[in-house]
Design goal:
This protein folds into 3 domains: 50 residues, no CATH class; 216 residues, 3-Layer(aba) Sandwich (Rossmann fold); 52 residues, no CATH class. The protein is 49% helix and 11% strand. The protein contains 16 helices and 9 strands. The strands form 2 sheets. The chain has a 7-stranded parallel β-sheet. Strand 7, helix 14 and strand 8 form a beta-alpha-beta unit. Helix 3 crosses helix 16, helix 6 packs antiparallel against helix 7 and helix 13 crosses helix 14.
């Protein structure tokens, strides 16, 4: 897998110094490729298999410890049947050097120091759309739009991290709340470009039109380089979803026979979580369960967090909350890709 190529080359080059002959210098990976290309490729395959094996052992250990192993096995089965759509949040774009929502809003708030107390209160409560509304009201919508385009609108940035594994696993579309274009680029690099992208008001017609174009991208919050239908502030939600239909209506058409898998999402006090809760309450029959890769809450908060997610029929797959989020998500995604968590 090309996902591991740079890591393998770095591993080779870490074995010793660069090879120097007079005034010429070569890296160890370059020399091995030139001298023994077959040997290089075999060593790369062995390296990838070792990484996959280590990922399975790592994931199985914490899944067993946190009581999520059987739940994860059930998720593997649904992924194998292509019955799972990933819901990709800002955390999956952080390895590509994009800020999370809180970091973005705090940086923008520096232009208005007087808003700091109210901004801190809103962000501490997880009220991101209200925090964005505060900035839009105080700074002006044009300033907010310009910053979104500047920060998230880069079409040339190369995607990095576990997001590059998604095209190897999920073939029936992706849902995202992100403004950036790392998903488009990741799928294009894997030669599985999205056949269609739905954003803003187009999401209402997405379920019917996406039936034939199965590998579609659903941008719940719109995109960086097009302000039409972009959703971030409270007034944005009212404009895009408030009068002609609700977010729950949109999601109902997308998930009626599919499970969602939340990746890189805070799943705190946000509209998608409330919309899925509404869908569960209105459901006449049992809809497919949803899943989320989420860090283990601190002691004393696990039960409340579990109930919050369960209200939306989201079932957590906990991973260690030790700051190594990318490593843990990579391990879980590799297990999904391999179709097994056991060695």
């Amino acid at each position: 897998m090309e996902y591991f190529r740079e890591r393998f080359d770095d591993d080779l080059n870490a074995e010793g110094e660069l090879i120097v002959i007079r005034d010429k210098t070569w890296s160890r990976d370059y020399v091995l490729k030139k001298v023994d290309e077959i040997g290089y490729q075999q060593a790369f395959q062995d390296f990838v298999e070792e990484v996959k094996q280590n990922a399975k052992e790592h994931a199985r250990a914490f899944l067993l410890k946190y009581g999520c192993l059987e739940r994860f096995r059930r998720l593997i089965g649904r992924v194998r049947n292509q019955s799972v759509v990933p819901w990709v949040g800002a955390g999956m774009s952080v390895p590509s050097r994009f800020p999370g929502w809180e970091q973005f809003l705090r940086h923008l708030q520096e232009e208005d120091p007087d808003s700091a107390p109210e901004m801190n209160r809103l962000l501490k409560s997880g009220l991101y759309e209200d925090a964005a509304q505060l900035l839009a009201d105080r700074l002006g919508q044009n300033i907010l739009d310009e910053n979104i385009e500047n920060v998230f609108g880069d079409l040339a940035r190369n995607p990095c991290g576990p997001i590059l594994l998604l095209p190897e696993i999920f073939k029936i579309g992706v849902v995202t709340t992100n403004f950036d274009y790392t998903l488009d680029q990741a799928y294009e690099l894997a030669s599985t470009r999205f056949r269609r992208t739905f954003a803003g008001r187009d999401l209402r017609i997405a379920p019917a039109l996406a039936a034939d174009d199965r590998n579609c991208l659903f941008r719940i919050h719109g995109e960086a380089n097009n302000s039409d239908g972009r959703v971030l502030t409270r007034s944005d939600y009212d404009r895009v979803y408030g009068n002609e239909g609700t977010l729950a209506d949109v999601l109902n058409g997308l998930v009626s026979n599919r499970s969602l898998l939340f990746l890189g999402c805070s799943l705190s006090v946000d509209r998608p979580l409330m919309a899925l809760t509404e869908l569960k309450q209105k459901a006449q029959v049992q809809n497919p369960r949803h899943y989320a890769f989420v860090p283990l809450p601190p002691d004393g908060e696990k039960v409340a967090r579990r109930k919050q997610l369960e209200a939306a029929d989201i079932h957590p797959i906990w991973y260690p909350n030790d700051g190594e989020h990318d490593q843990h998500i990579e391990a879980l995604l590799l297990c999904l890709m391999e179709g097994a968590v056991d060695a």
